[in-house]
């Protein structure tokens, strides 16, 4: 590592954000090409800025991802300097101390990140400091894809077709093998002092049994998925008891792996994997792109109805019902299993996410924003664009949204996608002895069946907080009134 005292070349500041990787990191690649010594930093910006981890579960993921990045940089002879505070103030201090004349970073596309980065670029330019930003967090920059009329896309299918017409994304860049680093005059903050990990209680104690954060783990998971789970993906991905999805979303959320690397690794797989499976998986990556397209052009997506007709909807927002939903005690097994998986693993199967979201919004008539906020806090893969777009899709208030009258029956959904009850039994052990016929409808089971399974409704497992048939009729009447009053 080079010392400032002996090096005449002015260093470049490399600012890591939601790109905690060496592979396919365009800002890092550009810094290495300059041949200047590099100061690698990660800034813990004020949470009020909305640029760090979205919630407590993702803070756990961030801690371990930063540890992994520190180790990777250490193997190259460098270090990751951890500092806290306002990004512009800290960058100005670093520039004054080091003599750096350039700051490099990879772009953020969430509204808060865009606003901060725009302000920083302008302020640095006024000081004669060059700030360069690079793509790589998405397959394509969201400003590039517009309709023939020059407007943003409002529906997914035309967006997907336009994405296809752009052709293959740029090839991912391999990680550097040699990097010239430089010491900082000030001391890096210890990661442990950031207190990103829960302690008392350690509600994330099971996370480590499910997840291995870090770049190496992300690439292992990608390889394993492409080799073993991509075939049959379209058919198997909706079954929550099977490991049939990629499980890459937490790595994507903090940029531990790039979407271009994932896309690239699936090339050529159609020789042994049905095209339908490959396309279906790539469409999941494209939904992420579409979500960022929406939030880029409609920055208020996480907070406001995209379709303002829903502004007049009469939400009930019952606090007891919301609490039952968060704790997984609604009396509907597939809903409760999903919410308990979320708490225990910081994750929930995508099909189940749609079921629990529909139940909250349409059975309980609780504003989708309450659910979106809870998911932000509890998901390791929390993403400002995906989270908001998906919740608005279910709520019928978003772009290309599911029709509001599409209301999932939680019992039928459970029976269709978890027919033998394996998923429910894993997360609701008190129902483990109930036979398949009643595993998704314990409220219909005869007293003798419940007794033989050691279940007492209302005691060992709750009765339904609401009758689904009643709830369905109620919400449709409310929706019809909203439409009539529009």
Automatic annotation (TrEMBL):
Catalytic activity: cyclobutadipyrimidine (in DNA) = 2 pyrimidine residues (in DNA)
EC number: 4.1.99.3
Co-factor(s): FAD; (6R)-5,10-methylene-5,6,7,8-tetrahydrofolate
InterPro entries: Crypto/Photolyase_FAD-like_sf, Crypto/Photolyase_N_sf, Cryptochr/Photolyase_FAD-bd, Cryptochrome/DNA_photolyase_1, DNA_photolyase_1_CS_C, DNA_photolyase_N, Rossmann-like_a/b/a_fold
Binding site for FAD: 233, 245-249, 281, 381-383
Domain of life (superkingdom): Bacteria
Record's keyword terms, sorted: Chromophore, FAD, Flavoprotein, Lyase, Plasmid
Domain Photolyase/cryptochrome alpha/beta: 10-139
EC top class named in words: lyase
MF terms in GO: deoxyribodipyrimidine photo-lyase activity; DNA binding; FAD binding
Cofactor note: Binds 1 FAD per subunit.
GO biological process annotation, one example: response to light stimulus
Site feature: Electron transfer via tryptophanyl radical: 315, 368, 391
Key word Transmembrane present: no
Alphabetical list of PROSITE patterns matching this protein: DNA_PHOTOLYASES_1_1 (PS00394), DNA_PHOTOLYASES_1_2 (PS00691), PHR_CRY_ALPHA_BETA (PS51645)
UniProt key word Lyase: yes
PANTHER family reported in the protein's UniProt record: CRYPTOCHROME (PTHR11455), CRYPTOCHROME CIRCADIAN CLOCK 5 ISOFORM X1 (PTHR11455:SF9)
Family from the record: Belongs to the DNA photolyase family.
Name the UniProt record assigns to this protein: Deoxyribodipyrimidine photo-lyase
Source species: Rhizobium grahamii CCGE 502
Classification lineage: Bacteria, Pseudomonadati, Pseudomonadota, Alphaproteobacteria, Hyphomicrobiales
